[in-house]
Structures
1.
Amino acid sequence: MYLRRTALSFCALTAALPAFAKDVELGTILVENEGGQEFFGEAVRLDTGGLMKSGDSIAETPRSVSVIGAQEIAERGGQTVEEVLSYTAGVTTSEYGMDARSDWYLVRGFRPRTFHDGLPSRYGYYNDTTPAPFLLDSVEVLRGPASGLYGNSEVGGVVNTRSKTAATPSENIAQLSFGSHDRKQVALDYSGDLNADGTLRYRFVGVLRDSATQVDYSQDDTLALAPSITWQPSEDTSLTLLANYQKDDQSPLIQFAPLDGTLTPLADGRELSDELFIGEPGFDRFETEQRALTAQFEHRFNSVWSMDATARYQSSDADYRHAWWSYNNYENDPPRYNEDGTADRTFYIADKSLETFAVDAHATAEYRLAGWDMRTLMGVTYSDAQYDSDSVTSAPQRPIDPFDPVYTGAPDLTPTPDAGTEVQETGVYVQNRATWNDRLHLDAGVRWGRIESDTEATAGSARALDEDEAWTTNVALLYAFDNGVSPYVSYAESFRQEVAGTDANGTPFDPTRGEQYEIGVKFQPPGTDMLFSAAAFDLTKSNLTQSDPANPGFQVQTGEATSRGLEFSAQTEWRDFGFDASATFLETENADGYTIATVAETTGSLWVDYSPSQGALRGWSFGAGARYTGEKWDGADSQKTPSHTLYDARVAYETDRYNVALNVRNLTDERHVTYCASGGCYFGQGRSVALTATTRF
């Protein structure tokens, strides 16, 4: 009830904003760094980048959007995309604790679909590399349904990572980093002209890392290379070719430890270490290799028409070996331990592959109609992904003492060939923005999408698993006042093909559907890089399967999950201080009427930076941050994972040419569990320290 009362109060405040806006008189604001450029790029990203396919400012976009640029990535010391997103409103990171197999995060209570350079980047599980943050120009988040632009996607939103390419001007930098767990990393970002008139440019971005991790007997090595060339014969035409190669030699890290000894001590008071390794040295590994080629084309035909197109071919392979804590012995006390206190292990082997091709092309028309400034975007998308996993899982065996492990070797296992899966998606979309007097912005869009999923039944043949098509719409309205206040309302829909099979009558299941109602306000004081936003939203995901009471053993598509909440974020400054704050409050409910599993209903963060502009400390900067994650439940409201607060810090010294920074995450080295349920508990990362020296040349 508290959340509903707060939402009503927020709506009343928003409704009163037009009157409020007329009476506000801003004083003189001095901006010392008017260009907003810092050592690694823009201090704060105030545009939507490529996320909305329009480049509009965040302040005039009637949706909840966050863009984390290269400068913020460097300042926070993010070593994964998860860590980059850990100070973002509406996002819960480290869903399953330490897990090198994937980046895990939730947006408004649901797992978003991930994109790279605007194209789908993930199919299946554990068959690809995870992005290296140094290679990224930005990480972009759209909260809420996004099928109007991105097709088959989750109701919570999308996360898009954007590459550094030769199309974007950049400084040459070289970087050397040392950190916890023998972490050693070198990185290079180098660019220049290939001809005298500068119409042909190149850029090379690369990372080489050798590292262990917090977990015993683990590694986190990578080689990532991203060369690109941009040909720009005129201001109206640009073609960029980007190659990507990445090879990761990592360990899975995740252990699936039991509740007893993890979240709660054993009867004798013992607790498992967050460095626990229950696997087998020399056996456990997660080695992935990815190759990709991307083409990005832009052309303006005249004052009205322009077009943009992106296409990518990608292939990857994964050698996945993992031994984890078996799920047997639930009848024992404590559960999942043998009577002598040892733990059985399950051994798993998988050889995985993924091959994808995707393209997104759209034309944009800018014109006036009946006094309105119009921008109409019309696009088509196509993607084809084929993936398989030859795997084998052993029975529980080879017990060890988790408090004093003696490793006994891995069994001989032979993977079983997988039938393979192919997913094809086609979409056509139209998105229009109508603007009146540079103040009133009306956005509306519609998309038709078709998706087919096939699996090979026998060699040389294929059997269709599912064929679906769906229409989705979105509409939003925003009014921008002269003083920077912009209230808005929006409605958006999504669909996702994720439920296979039929009901008792043989009727195939439909895609899940999502819809969101949102009301919000943004405030960007004119002439500043400050941005404040607040939003109230109501999300519903429908067509979820539930047990059919009339036909035992079958399911019906009658279930719904909901997420209602409030979000607040602020990026502001005062004198030599900078502040980045966010808070999210959710009420979630799954199809069974319980809190959605792994979702923290309250999260918040605060980062404060102090950069003296004069005096003896000029050139130094000091940062401190706190990240709060509220309690979580297991999807049945029976097992609670307690809340935790983690603290981060940064000290840096910078000149025009050099930047030396010391970043510490989880400053107090708090032992914490990110989520716990009957199937397992997941340790969060302890303290990590990184000393990074960067030079511009």
2.
Amino acid sequence: MKLLHTVDILIILLYLITIVVIGLVLRKRAQQSKDDYLLGGKSIPWYMLGLSNASGMFDISGTIWLVTLMFVYGIKSAWIPWLWPVFNQIFLMVYLSKWLRRSNATTGAEWIGTRFGFKKGAKLSHIIVVVFALIMCLGYLAYGFIGLGKFIEIFIPWEIVSNYMPFAVSPEFVPHFYGIIFTLFAVFYSLLGGMSGIVWADVVQFAIMTVAALVIGYLGFQAVGEHILNVPENWMSPTFGWKLNMDWSTIIPEVNQKIQEDGFGLFTVFFMMMVFKGVLVSIAGPAPTYDMQKILSTKSSAEASKMSGFVSVVLMPIRYLMIAGFAALALIYYEKLNLVNSAGVIDFELILPTAIKEFVPIGLLGLLLAGLIAAFMSTFAGTLNAAQAYLVNDIYLKYKNPSASSVQIKNMNYLTGIIVVIISIILGLFAKDVNSVLQWIVSVLYGSYVGANILKWHWWRFNGEGFFWGMAAGLISAGIVPELFPEVLGLYLFPIILIISIAGSIIGTYSAPPTEEKVLLSFYKNVRPWGFWGPIKDKLIAENPNFKENKDFGIDMFNVTIGIIAQTTLVILPMYIIFRQTIPVYIAIAILVICAFLLKKYWWNNLKEEID
């Protein structure tokens, strides 16, 4: 049995000590004020926030999932993250980050006051956003928790640990035990250092992952050059027909069962549903988690846009060099991999940790493990910070103790953080696997969020009551609908939940008067969204003839389209590089150059006018 070398263990310990030091060093600054703790004082440069956001998305559970997808589906796996949807970052880059940052809010729930005011409907909306945010944060924490446990299980065999344990642990709960241990480190630096501590720890983590990704990509590239790759006929193509038509029966028969379980066989139907859901989710804006907190932490609306764009530029090439490298190594040396988990079942989500254990040399193994453990901590810490923001800012300070001292706020941040962690660990204990939690979050829970959050940006008549009842109807249906159709893939339940949520939004809207006119005028003047704002726009123009409405819908959609093409190319290009596909590499580079020119001219240059 191959165990970790002393050098690798020392590297991991060095990393863990580093993040503890970061938390201690930044503790004093984080305690200066609420904004310093939750938003880093809105003084962190956009490129550091972008690296931090990218680092948070370079999570261990997601990487496990993406390596598994590429192993099974090849280049076509580039489309499947649209389930998330990964291209929501492009909508944020082009216009939504600007709109959100102009609010000057601390959290998504606080933003509600800028849109709906502070009467009954706004209070109901505030409560439902806090509830949704906490459910979303707990879901993400459980998702990261189970992924980390599966990962660590490969490197620290339970047979060794169990000899020192005073109690027995069932085999299926072994990953959860490991998840709890490393969760405690993430809790330490995120609780002490706040947003600044999270950002600096994320930058360290991303530097580690970049080095590891380049080395893994090189190892995969070399392996492809020295061996014949045995994959299905259309594995190397991003195109697809009505059905996936990918047959592994003569290569690795178990993979066909995996495809059937995933429910991706009718790939065109799956793809159309992904695009339909992905566009709506993206238009709705960011969910109230760590991504929104990073946007609200930027210095200005222009920097918010730059930060969101920078995420894709730094994340996609680096992450997919690693993913493609590991997929290449796993395909070529599949016979050496042991994908049987502690419960005695073949688990393709073990491809990543098993490949690391088998192929990564001493020294780099410790660096890579430190980076991937850090990836979990980054996601966990950012999500925990968002949950704390909602509990402290939107419940404690709003309803319980509005005049709390800095010491009281500090203690409440610590207390709420510990409570959230305990609840997320309990939820993680009941999670089946990474994919099951992911499907629930992105397909079912997001369905409850979309309808009300699209209407809040684009329809002046939409009010707090409409927002509350839309979100409430969606959340209730998100709990009931999956139970009624247990065999249906979560993605295909999305339209049902969406329709219920929109119905709740419209009925709720017309059950109460419109939002106060002065609130709507202030919101429209500051945020300047496009959409159905006719009556409000006319009143503003009557008051100030120089006021100009936002007529950028056309150019925004053009930039979104070009941005999605560029982002997808940044995903596919590293894949083709690792698998030595020369002509597709040249085509991808040409597409990127054209996209970069268009975005520079029609997006970046226009940001000069947006500096606050």
